[in-house]
Write a structure and sequence with these properties.
Strand order of the largest sheet: 3-2-1-4-5-8-9-10-11
CATH class: Alpha Beta
Radius of gyration: 18 Å
CATH topology: UDP-N-acetylmuramoyl-L-alanine:D-glutamate ligase
CATH superfamily: Ribokinase
Strand content: 15-25%
Number of strands: 11
Number of helices: 9
Shape: globular
Helix content: 25-40%
Order of helices and strands: EHEEHEHEEEHEHHEEEHHH
Number of domains: 1
Protein backbone atom coordinates (compact mmCIF):
# COMPACT_ATOMS: atom_id res chain seq x y z
CA UNK A 1 0.00 0.00 0.00
CA UNK A 2 1.32 3.42 -0.91
CA UNK A 3 1.77 6.03 1.80
CA UNK A 4 1.58 9.80 1.34
CA UNK A 5 2.00 12.87 3.49
CA UNK A 6 -0.41 15.78 3.27
CA UNK A 7 0.48 19.06 4.96
CA UNK A 8 -2.33 21.52 5.66
CA UNK A 9 -4.60 22.83 8.41
CA UNK A 10 -7.42 20.95 10.09
CA UNK A 11 -10.75 22.61 10.84
CA UNK A 12 -12.89 20.81 13.41
CA UNK A 13 -15.96 21.87 11.40
CA UNK A 14 -15.86 23.00 7.78
CA UNK A 15 -15.31 20.23 5.20
CA UNK A 16 -11.96 21.53 4.02
CA UNK A 17 -8.21 20.87 4.05
CA UNK A 18 -7.38 17.73 6.09
CA UNK A 19 -11.02 16.80 6.75
CA UNK A 20 -11.31 16.49 2.97
CA UNK A 21 -7.86 15.12 2.12
CA UNK A 22 -7.93 12.25 4.63
CA UNK A 23 -11.14 10.54 3.44
CA UNK A 24 -10.67 11.33 -0.25
CA UNK A 25 -7.11 10.02 -0.46
CA UNK A 26 -7.87 7.02 1.75
CA UNK A 27 -10.83 6.10 -0.46
CA UNK A 28 -8.36 5.71 -3.33
CA UNK A 29 -6.54 2.92 -1.49
CA UNK A 30 -3.67 5.05 -0.17
CA UNK A 31 -2.46 5.45 3.41
CA UNK A 32 -2.90 9.14 4.20
CA UNK A 33 -0.51 10.56 6.81
CA UNK A 34 -0.79 14.14 8.01
CA UNK A 35 1.22 17.07 9.28
CA UNK A 36 -1.35 19.61 10.54
CA UNK A 37 -0.23 23.21 10.10
CA UNK A 38 -2.93 24.69 12.32
CA UNK A 39 -6.00 23.72 14.33
CA UNK A 40 -9.16 25.74 13.73
CA UNK A 41 -12.54 25.45 15.40
CA UNK A 42 -14.21 26.25 12.07
CA UNK A 43 -12.68 27.37 8.78
CA UNK A 44 -12.10 31.06 8.10
CA UNK A 45 -15.29 31.41 6.07
CA UNK A 46 -17.26 31.34 9.33
CA UNK A 47 -17.90 34.59 11.21
CA UNK A 48 -16.24 33.15 14.31
CA UNK A 49 -13.27 30.83 14.54
CA UNK A 50 -10.30 29.98 16.73
CA UNK A 51 -6.84 29.40 15.29
CA UNK A 52 -3.86 27.63 16.84
CA UNK A 53 -0.63 27.68 14.85
CA UNK A 54 1.23 24.34 14.95
CA UNK A 55 4.42 25.45 13.20
CA UNK A 56 6.53 24.84 16.31
CA UNK A 57 5.61 21.14 16.20
CA UNK A 58 7.01 20.49 12.71
CA UNK A 59 10.62 19.67 13.62
CA UNK A 60 9.80 17.36 16.52
CA UNK A 61 7.30 15.43 14.39
CA UNK A 62 9.64 14.99 11.42
CA UNK A 63 12.53 13.97 13.70
CA UNK A 64 10.44 11.06 14.97
CA UNK A 65 9.67 10.04 11.39
CA UNK A 66 13.38 9.96 10.58
CA UNK A 67 14.13 7.85 13.68
CA UNK A 68 11.38 5.42 12.66
CA UNK A 69 12.60 5.35 9.03
CA UNK A 70 9.21 6.49 7.78
CA UNK A 71 9.10 7.42 4.10
CA UNK A 72 6.40 8.65 1.75
CA UNK A 73 5.42 7.95 -1.85
CA UNK A 74 4.22 11.51 -2.29
CA UNK A 75 3.76 14.84 -0.50
CA UNK A 76 0.81 17.16 -0.99
CA UNK A 77 0.49 20.62 0.55
CA UNK A 78 -2.73 22.60 0.86
CA UNK A 79 -3.61 25.68 2.91
CA UNK A 80 -0.55 27.06 4.72
CA UNK A 81 -1.14 29.79 7.25
CA UNK A 82 2.16 31.65 7.55
CA UNK A 83 5.35 32.71 5.81
CA UNK A 84 7.37 30.67 8.32
CA UNK A 85 5.52 27.49 7.41
CA UNK A 86 6.48 27.91 3.76
CA UNK A 87 10.16 27.96 4.73
CA UNK A 88 9.83 24.87 6.93
CA UNK A 89 7.96 22.95 4.25
CA UNK A 90 10.78 23.57 1.79
CA UNK A 91 13.01 21.87 4.38
CA UNK A 92 10.60 18.92 4.61
CA UNK A 93 10.59 18.59 0.83
CA UNK A 94 14.39 18.40 0.87
CA UNK A 95 14.45 15.84 3.69
CA UNK A 96 11.88 13.46 2.19
CA UNK A 97 12.18 14.09 -1.56
CA UNK A 98 14.42 11.05 -2.14
CA UNK A 99 11.56 8.74 -1.19
CA UNK A 100 8.73 10.93 -2.51
CA UNK A 101 8.64 10.80 -6.32
CA UNK A 102 5.62 13.13 -6.45
CA UNK A 103 5.26 16.50 -4.74
CA UNK A 104 2.05 18.46 -5.34
CA UNK A 105 1.57 22.02 -4.14
CA UNK A 106 -1.93 23.47 -4.09
CA UNK A 107 -1.14 27.19 -3.57
CA UNK A 108 -4.26 28.03 -1.55
CA UNK A 109 -4.11 31.82 -1.24
CA UNK A 110 -7.22 33.32 -2.77
CA UNK A 111 -10.26 33.22 -5.01
CA UNK A 112 -12.49 35.58 -6.98
CA UNK A 113 -9.63 37.99 -7.63
CA UNK A 114 -8.67 38.49 -3.98
CA UNK A 115 -6.15 37.01 -1.57
CA UNK A 116 -7.50 35.37 1.56
CA UNK A 117 -7.37 37.35 4.81
CA UNK A 118 -3.84 37.67 6.18
CA UNK A 119 -1.97 37.03 2.93
CA UNK A 120 0.11 39.66 1.13
CA UNK A 121 2.54 40.06 -1.76
CA UNK A 122 5.44 38.75 0.34
CA UNK A 123 3.52 35.53 0.98
CA UNK A 124 2.67 35.23 -2.73
CA UNK A 125 6.34 35.44 -3.70
CA UNK A 126 7.31 32.82 -1.11
CA UNK A 127 4.52 30.53 -2.34
CA UNK A 128 5.91 30.99 -5.83
CA UNK A 129 9.26 29.71 -4.52
CA UNK A 130 7.57 26.69 -2.96
CA UNK A 131 5.85 25.94 -6.27
CA UNK A 132 9.28 25.78 -7.90
CA UNK A 133 10.06 22.75 -5.69
CA UNK A 134 6.95 20.85 -6.78
CA UNK A 135 6.33 18.37 -9.56
CA UNK A 136 2.69 19.45 -9.91
CA UNK A 137 0.94 22.69 -8.92
CA UNK A 138 -2.81 23.31 -8.94
CA UNK A 139 -3.62 27.04 -8.79
CA UNK A 140 -6.93 28.63 -9.64
CA UNK A 141 -7.08 31.72 -11.86
CA UNK A 142 -6.78 34.12 -8.91
CA UNK A 143 -3.70 32.40 -7.47
CA UNK A 144 -2.11 32.10 -10.90
CA UNK A 145 -2.61 35.78 -11.69
CA UNK A 146 -1.09 36.87 -8.36
CA UNK A 147 1.94 34.59 -8.71
CA UNK A 148 2.48 35.71 -12.31
CA UNK A 149 1.98 39.40 -11.57
CA UNK A 150 -0.88 39.56 -14.08
CA UNK A 151 -4.21 41.35 -13.85
CA UNK A 152 -7.08 39.15 -12.73
CA UNK A 153 -9.81 38.90 -15.36
CA UNK A 154 -13.05 37.57 -13.97
CA UNK A 155 -14.88 36.63 -17.16
CA UNK A 156 -13.46 38.79 -19.92
CA UNK A 157 -10.62 36.55 -21.04
CA UNK A 158 -9.87 34.08 -23.82
CA UNK A 159 -7.60 31.11 -24.44
CA UNK A 160 -4.59 33.37 -25.05
CA UNK A 161 -4.83 34.78 -21.52
CA UNK A 162 -4.90 31.27 -20.07
CA UNK A 163 -1.95 30.13 -22.20
CA UNK A 164 0.03 33.17 -21.03
CA UNK A 165 -0.67 32.23 -17.40
CA UNK A 166 0.35 28.61 -18.03
CA UNK A 167 3.63 29.60 -19.67
CA UNK A 168 4.43 31.98 -16.82
CA UNK A 169 3.62 29.35 -14.20
CA UNK A 170 5.78 26.82 -16.04
CA UNK A 171 8.76 29.17 -15.75
CA UNK A 172 8.73 28.72 -11.96
CA UNK A 173 10.13 25.19 -12.25
CA UNK A 174 7.22 22.79 -11.65
CA UNK A 175 6.95 19.96 -14.18
CA UNK A 176 3.18 20.11 -14.62
CA UNK A 177 0.72 22.91 -14.07
CA UNK A 178 -2.95 22.13 -13.53
CA UNK A 179 -4.94 25.35 -13.86
CA UNK A 180 -8.53 25.09 -12.66
CA UNK A 181 -11.70 27.17 -12.82
CA UNK A 182 -11.31 28.18 -16.49
CA UNK A 183 -14.43 29.86 -17.92
CA UNK A 184 -13.78 31.04 -21.48
CA UNK A 185 -16.26 28.52 -22.93
CA UNK A 186 -19.91 29.45 -22.51
CA UNK A 187 -21.77 27.46 -19.83
CA UNK A 188 -18.69 25.32 -19.19
CA UNK A 189 -15.94 25.17 -16.60
CA UNK A 190 -12.59 23.61 -17.30
CA UNK A 191 -9.15 22.47 -16.27
CA UNK A 192 -5.98 22.57 -18.36
CA UNK A 193 -2.90 20.50 -17.52
CA UNK A 194 0.29 21.91 -19.05
CA UNK A 195 3.62 20.11 -19.35
CA UNK A 196 6.44 22.59 -18.74
CA UNK A 197 8.97 20.53 -20.72
CA UNK A 198 7.00 19.48 -23.81
CA UNK A 199 4.55 22.45 -23.73
CA UNK A 200 1.76 19.97 -24.41
CA UNK A 201 -1.58 20.69 -22.80
CA UNK A 202 -4.54 18.52 -21.94
CA UNK A 203 -7.87 20.17 -21.30
CA UNK A 204 -11.13 18.96 -19.86
CA UNK A 205 -14.34 21.01 -19.78
CA UNK A 206 -17.65 20.07 -18.21
CA UNK A 207 -20.95 21.75 -17.49
CA UNK A 208 -20.83 24.81 -15.25
CA UNK A 209 -23.03 24.79 -12.15
CA UNK A 210 -23.71 28.19 -10.51
CA UNK A 211 -22.77 26.95 -7.04
CA UNK A 212 -19.73 28.32 -5.26
CA UNK A 213 -17.94 27.16 -2.15
CA UNK A 214 -14.23 27.59 -1.53
CA UNK A 215 -13.61 24.00 -0.44
CA UNK A 216 -14.13 22.35 -3.84
CA UNK A 217 -10.51 23.13 -4.67
CA UNK A 218 -9.38 20.94 -1.76
CA UNK A 219 -11.50 18.08 -3.06
CA UNK A 220 -10.14 18.49 -6.59
CA UNK A 221 -6.49 18.49 -5.46
CA UNK A 222 -7.00 15.47 -3.20
CA UNK A 223 -8.58 13.35 -5.94
CA UNK A 224 -5.97 14.49 -8.47
CA UNK A 225 -3.08 13.70 -6.14
CA UNK A 226 -4.42 10.25 -5.25
CA UNK A 227 -4.93 9.44 -8.89
CA UNK A 228 -1.37 10.46 -9.81
CA UNK A 229 0.13 8.55 -6.87
CA UNK A 230 -1.72 5.47 -8.13
CA UNK A 231 0.03 5.84 -11.49
CA UNK A 232 -2.81 7.23 -13.57
CA UNK A 233 -2.11 9.70 -16.37
CA UNK A 234 -2.58 13.42 -15.90
CA UNK A 235 -5.46 13.29 -18.40
CA UNK A 236 -7.25 10.59 -16.40
CA UNK A 237 -6.49 12.38 -13.13
CA UNK A 238 -7.94 15.77 -14.09
CA UNK A 239 -11.09 14.14 -15.48
CA UNK A 240 -11.57 12.02 -12.37
CA UNK A 241 -11.01 15.00 -10.06
CA UNK A 242 -13.27 17.36 -12.00
CA UNK A 243 -16.06 14.82 -12.31
CA UNK A 244 -15.91 13.98 -8.60
CA UNK A 245 -16.25 17.66 -7.70
CA UNK A 246 -19.12 18.07 -10.16
CA UNK A 247 -20.93 15.00 -8.83
CA UNK A 248 -20.37 16.23 -5.24
CA UNK A 249 -22.05 19.53 -6.13
CA UNK A 250 -24.94 17.77 -7.83
CA UNK A 251 -25.66 15.49 -4.88
CA UNK A 252 -25.42 18.48 -2.53
CA UNK A 253 -27.92 20.54 -4.54
CA UNK A 254 -30.48 17.75 -4.14
CA UNK A 255 -30.50 18.25 -0.37
CA UNK A 256 -32.76 21.13 0.65
CA UNK A 257 -31.25 21.07 4.15
CA UNK A 258 -27.63 21.32 2.98
CA UNK A 259 -25.11 23.39 4.91
CA UNK A 260 -23.56 26.46 3.28
CA UNK A 261 -19.93 25.67 4.05
CA UNK A 262 -19.19 22.65 1.88
CA UNK A 263 -20.38 19.91 -0.45
CA UNK A 264 -21.55 16.43 0.48
CA UNK A 265 -18.66 14.54 -1.08
CA UNK A 266 -18.99 11.86 1.59
CA UNK A 267 -22.07 10.47 -0.16
CA UNK A 268 -20.08 9.49 -3.25
CA UNK A 269 -16.70 8.48 -1.78
CA UNK A 270 -17.42 4.89 -2.80
CA UNK A 271 -17.12 5.90 -6.46
CA UNK A 272 -13.42 6.63 -5.93
CA UNK A 273 -12.83 3.18 -4.46
CA UNK A 274 -14.54 1.59 -7.44
CA UNK A 275 -12.47 3.41 -10.07
Amino acid sequence: MKRILTIQDISCVGKCSLTVALPVISAQGIEACILPTALLSTHTGFKNFTFRDLTDEFDSVTQVWHKENITFDGIYTGFLGSFGQLELIEKIFNEFSSSAPLILVDPCMGDNGKLYHGFDEKFVMKMRELCSKAHVITPNITEASFMCGKSFLRDEYNEDYILDLLENLASFGAYKIVLKGIRYKQNECGIIAYDAKTKEKVEYFHEFLPFHTSVTGDIFASVLFGSLVNGETIETAIKKAANFVLDSIKVTLKDQNRTWYGVQFEKILCTLANN
